[in-house]
Amino acid sequence: MRALLTSIPLTVLLASPSFADPLPSWTDTATKAGIIAFVERVTDPGSPDYVTPAARIAVFDNDGTLWAEQPVYFQLLFAIDRLKEMAAADPAVLSSDVLRAAAKGDMETVAASGTEGLLQIVSATHSGLTVDEFQAAVRNWLDTARHSSTGMAYDEMIYQPMLELLSYLRDEGFHTYIASGGGLHFIRVFSENAYNIPPEQVIGSIGNGSYSAQDGPPRVMKDPGIFFIDDKAGKPVAIEARIGRRPVIAVGNSDGDFQMLEWTTAGEDARLGILLHHTDGEREYAYGRDSHIGQLARGLDEAASRGWLVIDMAGDWERVWPGGE
Predict the structure, then answer these.
(1) 0.85 cut: is pTM over it?
(2) Side by side, which strands form the sheet with 309-312?
(3) d(Cα 18, Cα 240) in Å, to the nearest integer?
(4) What is the pLDDT of residue 119?
């Protein structure tokens, strides 16, 4: 039956009342057809590209792939809000120019400080407390903070078409993972409710940590400094270490995901790389080659030659947000 379905044009299948469209928020473009055709091939036992269920691994970036990332990464906005609270209780926390600028909302100075400045902000706001305390702070922030442009809660700014893709893949026997440059403990707070991806299937950047059983119950502490950054070349390293299998599908949106897609699609047998290009300035944001966040240049230049699919948000998605446009 599966082989028969793959021989029927997508438009005919979707018009049939007996066929449930797995990606209803996607327009009927070549991109949607390509995704469905690939999944059908690798899950059809009669196909030469068949992949056993145990090996069906799909990895997704988070920022800009599963949820929005403009005007700056949402985790940075959390860190700045937390820094302001900390400074109100103890002004001595603002021990550097970049921390003082962040507390004032001076994003130009923060941006100019580069990676070093961002790490200062993260180190100051993400350490000195237990993992449980940190995640409670994240949960409270997600429950109360709102995006400056949309007025939406940050964990509502997730992409409906990507939710459908995740669900479709799981229905077809795939194991779905997040592989993000964002913080591991930050993403784990909302990944299960937002994406139906449990905490143990989240791979992310990790700060220094330690175990303590003195002066209280045993606990894992978040300490200053960065242990591992899960971005660029770090993504394949972390995925291999955590999963132990090369993914069959990798989905990202920026050049920070390039090596993840490159490594995934270099594997033997059928593999698929997918990039989301943010082209919709009306319903979301339009950015790419010259963006300060989520820059996508090399990926666009090399996608065709590498056989990767590029999602055009404006053209390939009928709607962006759950329950809305």
Answers:
(1) yes
(2) 129-130, 219-228, 202-212, 175-183, 57-60, 249-252, 272-277, 309-312
(3) 40
(4) 87
